[in-house]
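Archive entry: two folds, one per protein. Generate the first.
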Amino acid sequence: MYPKIIVQPNYFPAWWCDNINNYMMQNVAASSDLGKKGVRRCDVRGLVPGMKPYKDVFNSLMGFAKNNINHLDVDIDYQIDGPCIQHITYMPGHGVGWHEDTMVTSAALKLERYKDLKIDRKVSLTVMLSSQDEYTGGEFIFEKGGDRKHNVEGKGTVAMFTSHTEHMVTEITSGVRNILFVFITGPSWR
């Protein structure tokens, strides 16, 4: 299956990104994530329902998904996998090795509305909260075999792609790279 990727530069305004980033950095403790077999090295903060900006951020991300999902040709339910929207901070030495995001979600299977339906991560959505002049390294690369890069740089830039797409983020060599990230679920792949 050919990976489908949408990149929309500067979709969210810089002030929106700065507000979210500042809120998360000031109000939510980070936990280090060394990931499975060292695939992901970063600090993670969770934006959960009930937090001041959650509803605005959730609605903004799902609005982008609704406006662009026809380009990916997948069925989604506009719900996120897990309890939160992830705010991820990459510092020098941090990055993400080659991986896919597809899996059956344990969180979704616990929801009553899905008790008889298998749910998968269908779409991954990333919002850049940092400008490319705030860090070096941290290139977002898709398709392991072809090392195809996409210009997923610039504060407010959104990348949305099918979750079975192989991708990575090269190691940060200086500065700090902040993003928002969610997995959007849907009925099992056919």
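Generate the second and append.
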Amino acid sequence: MKNIFVKTKNVKNFITMTTNLQTRAEGVPGMVLVYGEPGLGKTQTALWWVANHQSDAIYVSAKQSMSTRWLLEEIIKELGDTPSYRTSELFDQIVRELIKKPRIIIVDEIDYLTQEKSAIEMLRDIHDRTHTPIILIGMSLADKKLKRYKHLYDRLSEILHYQPFFKDDVKNLITELSEVKFDDNAIEYVYKSGNRFRQLVKIINKAETFAKSNDIDEIHIKDVQLLSQ
């Protein structure tokens, strides 16, 4: 399988959103939410974007039972500094770093923090003190979970809902990633049977192995049906 990042409609919407964040007018809040079902490429998009904007962004992934202090430590480490001992010092340290060198903060798996009010409010405080754009990424219920925090939710200038892949997305993903060609009927079958990114990667990997073992250069619908069993 080719090591290529394919820009689906979701990815293009993400790029537009980050551009809007970076060029927003003064006074416009700089927090956004990206959410959706698993397997649609939210994390992959964020990691790809950060990799291409290393001097302008950092990526932090929340964890189960993550405390406010733990979150702040991860942020300051990604900013390139050694964490202070006290939580209050950590906050001031982050503020200084972001004022000195502004960067977008991406916090993935935000669902893990929705039960930790102080962590959510701390992100809002960082935004308010530094005007740093903050991108929150979560699962399908993240939007509803964050509504409990009115002060933070009011600061969301955009909410991007990642949608299941469109047919063109599936076709482009297969065409760009697969080392073996899929005919149109095979692509249609893949699209209708399940169009999550992880599912697509699995079927492409199986198809490439199948094609090599059977010395064929094109995958047909009967092949995909067999591989999907």
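Annotation attached to the second fold: The CA atoms of residues 1 and 178 lie 5 Å apart. The two ends are 21 Å apart (CA to CA).
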